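FAQ: What does a multi-protein file look like?

Like this. Sequence, then tokens, then the next protein.
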Amino acid sequence: MTSPRTTLSLVDTDPAELAVDAIVIGVHSQTTEAGHGAPADALLLASGAESIAAAFDGKLTETLALLGATGGPGEVIKLATLGTVTAPVVVAVGLGAEPSGAAPAPESLRRAAGAAVRALAGAPRVALALPLPDDADAPAALRAVAEGALLGGYRFAGYKTKPQPARREPVAEVLVAVPDAADATALAEVARAQAVAGAVRTSRDWVNTAPNELRPPAFADAVATAAREAGLEVEVLDEAALAAGGYGGIMAVGQGSEAPPRLVKLTYTPAGGGSGKRVALVGKGITFDTGGISIKPAQGMWEMKSDMAGAAAVGATMLAVAALKPSVAVTGYLPMAENMPSGTSYRPGDVISMYNGKKVEVLNTDAEGRMVLADAMARACEDGADYLFETSTLTGGQVIALGKRIAGVMGTPELCERVRVAGDSTGEPAWPMPLPDDVRKGMESDVADISQVNAGMDRAGHMLQGGVFLREFVTDEVSWAHIDIAGPGYHSGEATGYWTKGGTGVPVRTLLALVDDVATNG
């Protein structure tokens, strides 16, 4: 199921004269000194709004303040122009306090553009006159505005059968006001933003699809079809191939479901061989997670359709890689299974022989993600990789430790730092976490090489246990990073910034930034 798509282009016409349904400007909050030394809040127009302000004879900020505008981040205030400018509506979006001596941070622009475009659903054509610097920071700012606008316009198509009178269509066309609409660098940023946002939207669509419609075979087919159309090399292992190949972890998790497991491999080979480096991306694809025999509570279980957000992100990232054509080889591995309780489910106490030959004692069938990932990571290392990035909605411990916006990162310290930097640059924050020896000691098994969780079922350091387990399946010569997105992979609250309710597409943009980093810096 594909969501409606917003298109985006550049324009260098005076914003006050654009024939659009709404024009978006930025406003900053500003504290001034009012009478008797008491502080009073005032508004400050961001750059880009000069011609709009002139058309209002200097009364624009006063009027917006009367309507309740404060300039707070993400705040959206609409004002009828009554013919003052060509557009019938001016929309002021809050950018927060004015940064001293600099343009707003890219993430502030990304969230502002997303909030404005989302609030303007129902308006066919919208222009953004947001602050864009004219220095070296200009490309990053434009990229942020473009990504925010395209992602803020996302809405899942859904399954409603009756017309919804109050449901307005997403903005169809967005124009971004720039100094020169023909500038090659600006056009390149827009092209990249369209490819990246398209991938994020595809990831969101897969995550938001009802789990009865996206069981492992159907998910594998959807990814394979999109990948072939993008020009990627595709390999799909079905249950017979997985069993014959020794993928014990994937088979164990998938054996409780009537919908059998899959492993999808997507390969991008750059022209001329590229930089010579090889990047492997691995994503957890549990299309629904009941917990298996160790069944989850009913409350909130419906959100477990998002337990394949890691695989959705990796698959979508590979589609963007095919479009952007970086000079580095990239291969994606998507292990897919449905974790169901049945007479054929794997059990606590089972010992599973994994793809790399290690024996794992199962203590909790709800710790299934690490089982399918371990096989895929071992296969990635066997195929050959210099860097391995794996992402998954792996542990509730990530949410407890870092909240719902910040991913946890574990693995090779230098690579974890690169993930953190990439996350900061894309607005998908991640924080490096340790892999302590005492956590590994707690996972010693009496009968196998390692227990799947702490042998005493102690949940202390639960997020770290996942990372420690996965480390066992990465060969020494491969630098690796495990990105736990249990919180940021799915947004169950109200829409905010460029996030809508449901799948977020995290960490597609981080993975693409990392691929670029490896292509450029090795």
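And here is the next protein:
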Amino acid sequence: MIHKLSLIVIMAVAFSCTPTGNHSPIHLIPEPLSINTDSQGDFMLAVNTAIVISDSTMLPAAEHLKEILKTELPIKWDTEVEKIKPSIVMRYDIALDSLSPEGYILDINKKNISISSGGPSGLFYAAESIRQLLPAHSETGSSVVSVIPGVKITDAPRFAWRGLHLDVSRHFMPLDFIKKYIDYMAMHKLNVFHWHLTDGIGWRIEIKSHPELTDIGAWRKVKEGKRPWQDFEVWRKGDTEPKYGGFYTQEEIREVVAYAQDRFITVLPEIELPGHSEVVMQCFPELLCTNTQGQALKNTGVYCAANPKSYQLLEDVIDEVLELFPSEYIHIGGDEVAKDNWNSCAKCGKMMRANNYDAQQLQSHFVNHFDNYLKNKGRKLMGWHEILEGELSPSASIMYWGGHDGTADALRENHPTVLTQGSHLYFDHYQSLSAQEPKAFGGFAPLKKVYELEPVPEELEPQYTQNVLGVQANLWTEYMPTPQRIEYMLFPRIAALAEIAWSGKSQKSWPHFRNKMNSMLKRYDAMGLNYATSALRPEIRFELQQDSRQLKVTLNTELHTDIYYTTDGSEPNLTTATLYTEPFYLDKAVTVKAIGIKDGKATGKPEIREARLHKAIGCEIELHSTPNERYAAQGGSTLVNADFGGNKWGNGKWLGFLNKDFEATITFEQATTIEKVALSCIEETGSGIYLPKGMEIQVSIDGKNFETAGTWSSERKGDIAITPEVINEEITVSFNPIQCKYLRIKAPYHQIKDQGVFMFIDEIIVQ
């Protein structure tokens, strides 16, 4: 629910202020409703300073403030307040109901600190704001704080649901890191920890009624040269292969839930059904669908929907989950359910015929069973938005993970919805275009793109905005095997998420946020976090100047840093390179190298990009094949602009053609002699992207009569390995020099039975 804030409070918003004394500017993330730094004086911690409370529900916030200040301040009751000066006074104020229980007013002056709120969580968030008023070095264990800058802050969140997800199925994370993760959330005023405990390749929660789920399902065989999800197989006692895995005992889960509650964070458990359950089927093969001969069908991770044992197992699991998690919602997954087995299953077929179901309605039958089951237990069901397929119970809630352009349609389905748009809020996606980025999923979500997301579409009718519960970002750990890698993918994007979730639209400003991140990165440094420096790496951009055929070169970083560059092949540094101040132009092939320098230190290795000029640059081009709308870039001109896409096919610089051959015609301004044509392609078979099967080059003088100049055919035979490895390749056809005005390129795609196949192309290079 979006909290309604008073007009007076909203008008008080201030983007930046200068505090009293000689302190640095006050920079808080997420941005509060208002910051007032009129001269009030700074608060000095004294030996007799105490934290004053009036209710035991204030204790978590008081204890947390003691941790932040790293000082053993006594906690006293308000009956003693007259005797305690200076003091930090916490109080409840029913007049602040308009700010919501999570809102607060923090008033710091030289006499005392007053923290007022309508609820205990608001007091806690005020303590977190005090944390950011302190210098970054206060995060170190040895630092002692004595001065807190004078300021008055009025604050409240925009959304009641401010979530962060973590997948521990694909890669298990130790208990101490789960607690750190919760601390990271609290620091950024997030309040829902979505714990993805089960998936196809790992079961991570102890279920005492079915110990097989962790005795077997929590461990997988490690197979050399294969990713965890490739040829997945559980590890059983006696197997000789190395094993990987782990799980959380019920006692550990209670410990995490209590730890989160102390930080006003709800833990939302996810138990996958009816799909993404390959590991369960390996533990209990009797739950697989069967054919008319009673033979088990292929394990696609889907429960047999006509088998009563499927429902019984899941009810047993849910009963234990409900004992462990007090959350209002229970997440049941429900996404990407492969329905082929249901259509081939003798029992499911009989059930569908008896109820006049199709496969989507059978899915709804399965999901709605558990919606009713949870309602009878006093809880609510939530699932990924695919549970909308069929006829979903009106009481069910969804998480929408599609692209931002589909958000309005999802909300019009009229279910309570958490917005977690995959186009922006999937933190397993790449953070920059740099080749230095560690392997990630194929999408592209840099810091600025995340920050600028307005989750609620402007075109959404007012009656549907009430369906928005809030927002959430997700971390899927296919390529995050360690806590350090998770930190890299989470920070600094968690700061952008914090402002999306907490701050109102009128409070957000990218230039202001960019300035604030200077302070926040210093805090992350002091905390020893392995945050990504992606936003400090120079991006080298080429833009074709149509008239001159030159390339305009722009160097940019998302966050503030100086950029030095070279074009002679030498390594850039402070002494030998040129400080970038404005765009420059290239009329020949060179290698541009650029490096970020912040506080006298390099922010990473140099970024390198080759400027390649060829005969087709800027020419007229006609596409005879239509690219997929998600991967259409700038249309045909994408292929003749010398702006190569690099190794990230989701960065908007590639044309993607789904299940179709590629064909295009280039028209030169005048007859031109050519002898070589290359097609720049990318392959990632694990994502369904394959190199072309062949290529044919045709030429013409009049645009009507074409002749073949050369061909190329793939030498691949048989099945192609399905891997997550990315291959950039230029498929080249050379021939005797020939003059033409029209050049036609044809490239058939690699057809694979029962599989969608993409072909991605970013440039046609003509020489």
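Q: Is there any per-entry metadata?
A: Some entries carry free-text notes. For the entry above: DSSP finds 17 helices and 38 strands in the chain.
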